[in-house]
Amino acid sequence: MDIKVAAKAPAKQTNACIVVPVHTASKLSGAASSINSRSGNAISRAIKRGDAKTDIGSSLMLFELDKISSDRVLLVGAGESNQASRAQFRTVCTEIANALQKSGAALAIIHLEKSVYVDSESAAWHASTLARILVDSQYQFTLHSKEKTPANRLKKAIFVVPEKEQRACATAARQGLAIANGQSLARDLGNLAPNICTPVYLAKKAQELAKTNSKFTTKILTEAQMSKLGMGAFLSVSRGSKQEGRLICMEYRGADKKKKPTVLLGKGVTFDTGGISIKPSASMDEMKFDMCGAASVFGAMRAISELSPKSNVIGVVAAAENMPDGDASRPGDVVTTMSGQTVEILNTDAEGRLVLCDSLTYVERYKPAAVIDVATLTGACVVALGKVCTAVMSNDDELADQLYQSGQTSGDLAWELPLWDEYQTQLDSNFADMANIGGSPAGAITAGCFLSRFAQNYRWAHLDIAGVAWKGGSEKGATGKPVSLLMDYVLNHA
């Protein structure tokens, strides 16, 4: 989609839909007031009749109004003027996006007026949020079918903003568009069938992504190279599969070489049977989504490629498949990690932390400013926080707070869980330095405690996205989260 920002609406509006916010019939403002006057009070009459609601989340399409050049005018309920919260503004944006998708309009002229602004946010935030939601609403996964993209999809949107805010809003809209494109890539990778989206496939996608920006380089580690590095935990997961594991490193250098990079590390288990500790067959097909942490790293790196921020970012993907063949790891096996610490594998279905722990040791060579790992790590996280937000665990209070704030700003909500020493004892083992599970109590936290033992030499945060990475049922599919959270953090530190 092409998105432009202007201070005035274009004169020619063929096959366009004008989008205006409405609050109350007695207090029409901006574009709504102008259209109402020219059309013989069509808007105020629609509100008084009850056809047009002013409640947030409502909309009404009006057609061929007198003296209005556009075929369509979309009235969007925006509640009380300047009273919307961040979440409510996102609801308004979603309603706009959904109504436009159904309208068949090729061009949308959206009046992004101050009356709909959230007091705590800049005009730029509104433009970025609207752009991201508008583009994300068009997402369709058609890579495995003959279904074609509908010909009447919205092709262009023009945001009409106050003139003094035009430049900032244009930059922000570009950022929102890039983030949405990154989300689309993350959703595509998550939705791909696991016989196609293998570790080797992800490695090839990383090499393709590197060609889109001259500041990108890619390094791929094979199992033989990982074996030489002593990555015994990682290799214990992939050994049961015919698909070889890969450690994928995407390096973006957009700032001075002396500036320490941010490392984004994604769990990329392309299919998780549970290994010898095999999962129940019901809904096991959804275990192709166990690489959504890796997909979000790809999405963030795609957005970074488009925006070329003045920062250094390393995207690392720990890609493996967890299968139960005759060479698979057994419960009771002891493996030696790259750090030299030993792990007793009590459950082969706790495999994500095994590929991540060696990766956390590996990324130490980048001397990072911060490392953020992203993983669909535990079902316990879904029990703790449901499908609403990501769990954050960190060894640095400031980093945890920054990720929380990025969640608030982006709408990819996050909430911190504690990593107290009292939980660490649950990982005690009689036969190794630690066990790979800590029992059912506080399962998401003990998984974070496990990872923390491999991230002691730098600022680190763990994002457990098991509750938000995909949807099930009739809406089954990857969500693209938390690409927008990661990008808000990256852009804030550019």
Describe the structure.
35% of the residues lie in helices and 20% in strands. By secondary structure, the protein is of the alpha/beta class. Helix 12 links the parallel strand 14 and strand 15 (414-416). The protein has 2 domains: 2-162, Leucine Aminopeptidase, subunit E, domain 1; 183-492, Zn peptidases (Aminopeptidase). The longest helix has 26 residues, at 166-191. The chain has helices at residues 30-38, 42-49, 86-103, 123-136, 166-191, 199-210, 223-229, 232-238, 292-307, 352-362, 379-385, 397-410, 421-424, 443-452, 483-492; strands at 2-6, 16-22, 59-63, 72-77, 107-111, 156-160, 216-221, 246-253, 262-272, 312-322, 334-336, 342-344, 370-375, 390-394, 414-416, 434-435, 460-464, 470-471, 477-478. The mean pLDDT is 95. The strands form 4 sheets. Strands 7-8-10-9-13-17-14-15 form an 8-stranded mixed beta sheet, sandwiched between helices. A 6-stranded mixed beta sheet has the order 1-6-5-2-4-3, sandwiched between helices.
N- to C-terminal separation?
26 Å
CATH topology of the largest domain: Aminopeptidase
Instruction: Specify the biggest β-sheet.
Output: 8 strands, mixed
State Rg. 24 Å
> Would you identify the CATH architecture of the largest domain?
3-Layer(aba) Sandwich
* Side-by-side strand order of the widest sheet: 7-8-10-9-13-17-14-15
Q: Which structural class best describes the helix and strand composition?
A: alpha/beta
Helix content: 25-40%
- Counting DSSP E segments of at least 2 residues, the number of strands comes to 19
Which runs of at least 5 residues are low in confidence (pLDDT < 50)? none
State the helix count.
15
| Approximate strand percentage | 15-25%
Q: Write down the overall mean pLDDT.
A: 95
Q: What is the general shape?
A: elongated
CATH class of the largest domain: Alpha Beta
Overall structural domain count: 2
